[in-house]
Design brief:
Layout: H1 15-21, H2 24-27, H3 31-47, H4 53-72, H5 84-96, H6 109-144, E1 150-155, E2 158-164, H7 165-190, E3 192-193, H8 209-216, E4 220-221, H9 225-230, H10 233-260, E5 267-268, H11 287-310, H12 326-347, E6 350-351, H13 353-361, H14 367-376, H15 381-398, H16 407-413, H17 421-424, H18 427-433, H19 442-459
Parallel strand pairs: 3-4
Antiparallel strand pairs: 1-2, 5-6
């Protein structure tokens, strides 16, 4: 296959060089974005009189035909082509003859690939956001079902204070809401048209970049042609946002793995979302969560690879930038899959509420409530803290929980204790009393659920 840039060269490119240089196997997935951009470019060339209007119309019809044939499978991408841009142009020329050769007027592959990257990134941002919305909806539904499910909240992986499973889940909903917002922010800087920058210095033809931007749905046009072809910040930001999202998924996965262990046994996964062992018949492994946790590393790696590609490049375009796609494609695919499978795994899981409650009773998670009780009776907090610590030490010595200590033991440490201490340290009451904004009490959690649902409703508008 003759290269489009063959005029300058006396020799054909070697097969080895062509294979090394080509990107068609990677950027071929952007054929729709490439053709959409070419159609808008052709329309502008005709409207501006840069090429005859009738030829512009033929180009558009020809491009529509190629797009239709690629989607239906009637046309296969020729992997001998250097890249998707050259493949489309060669196919168009094959179908239209000399007219096909007019398409690349006032355009370079440098601004063409920048355009394809931006169109693809905007499509992928929307797709990832949709998967995030689905997971948030699952978390919100689980929260609605567990506003009274008392469990221990942890710090340092030690039982700390009483919360509810709903409250715990909504912390993750908040994380994924930020991921959604972060992607929306990335989209603002992605939604800028680079086409018309040409190789780096614009063009002598009277193009109308704003008309192309309007046709393709871009909110703005890049104001500097060198930046237009060399900017990949939007791809770095997208990769970074995906990495943060994977970090949140990995944290959730770690907790699911713990919750499914016999040591916790807070959650039972549906058989469809767990695996067994080849040798141990009793095993039920949380492989989905383990894989999500593992795949987080590749998404981090993709971000670092992109940053490293860009770190020392002079302006404007350099062939190094061909390496900008594969890592981002992989990150997007990985995150979408991990979000989808995590949502289904959680949606079908069984919450073992009694185990959660019993674990909380054994962890002295109502100790702060003992101290708060004394403070309300007039004791200074630091003194109340010391007294409560001594009570916990006694309970450990007797191998009982705080609510199992007799009142006589309480009164050994402070005369302020009365029979009402047992109501104060009942775990369900401990949660009910935590009515501060954002806390785990049911009314507060229901407000949080409403915030999440309002967010979802707004995201779908």
């Amino acid at each position: 296959m003759e290269t489009m840039w063959a005029g300058r060269f006396k020799k054909q490119i070697s097969e080895m060089t062509n294979d090394f240089n080509a990107s068609i196997k990677v950027d071929g997935r952007m054929f729709e974005e490439d053709i959409r951009g070419s159609m808008a470019h052709a329309a502008m060339l005709g409207a501006q009189g840069i090429i005859p209007k009738e030829e512009a119309d033929k180009l558009i019809v020809g491009l529509e035909g190629i797009l239709s044939d690629l989607k239906s499978g009637a046309l296969k991408i020729d992997e001998r082509a250097e890249d998707i841009h050259m493949f489309v142009e060669a196919e168009l020329t094959k179908r239209l003859g000399e007219t096909g050769k007019r398409l690349h007027t006032a355009r370079s592959r440098n601004d063409q690939v920048a355009l394809d990257n931006r169109l693809y990134a905007m499509k992928e941002i929307a797709a990832v956001q949709a998967e995030i919305e689905n997971l948030i909806a699952v978390l919100a539904k689980l929260a609605e079902e567990n506003t009274e499910t008392v469990m221990a909240g942890y710090t340092h992986l030690q039982r700390a204070q009483p919360v509810t499973f709903a409250h715990h889940l909504l912390a993750y909903a908040a994380m994924f809401m930020r991921d959604h917002d972060r992607l929306a922010d990335v989209k603002k800087r992605t939604n800028v048209l680079p086409l018309g920058s040409c190789a780096l210095a614009g063009t002598t033809h009277p193009i109308d970049r704003f008309a192309v931007a309007k046709q393709l749905g871009f909110a703005d046009v890049c104001f500097n042609s060198m930046d237009g072809v060399s900017d990949r910040d939007f791809m770095l930001e997208f990769a970074a946002a995906l990495a943060v999202c994977m970090m949140h998924l990995s944290r959730l996965s770690e907790e699911v793995i713990l919750w499914c262990s016999w040591e916790f046994k807070f959650l039972e996964l549906d058989d469809a979302y767990a695996t067994g062992s080849s040798i141990m018949p009793q095993k039920k492994n949380p492989d989905i969560s383990e894989l999500v946790r593992g795949k987080t590393g590749r998404v981090y790696g993709n971000l670092m690879a992109l940053l490293t590609v860009m770190k020392g490049l002079p302006l404007a375009y350099n062939k190094d930038m061909q390496e900008d796609k594969e890592n981002l494609f992989d990150s997007g695919d990985t995150v979408k899959t991990c979000l989808a499978v995590t949502a289904e795994m959680l949606r079908t899981a069984t919450v073992l509420k009694e185990n959660m409650f019993n674990a909380g009773r054994k962890g002295f998670i109502n100790a702060t409530d003992v101290a708060d009780y004394l403070v309300k009776k007039g004791e200074a907090f630091r003194s109340a803290y010391k007294i409560t610590g001594e009570l916990v030490a006694l309970a450990i010595e007797k191998n009982v929980s705080l609510d199992e200590l007799p009142l006589s033991d309480y009164r050994r440490f402070s005369p302020l204790f009365g029979e009402d201490i047992y109501k104060e340290i009942d775990l369900k009451n401990c949660v009910k009393k935590r009515t501060s904004y954002g806390g785990p009490a049911a009314p507060s959690v229901k407000k949080q659920i409403k915030i999440v649902k309002d967010f979802l409703a707004s995201a779908k508008q």
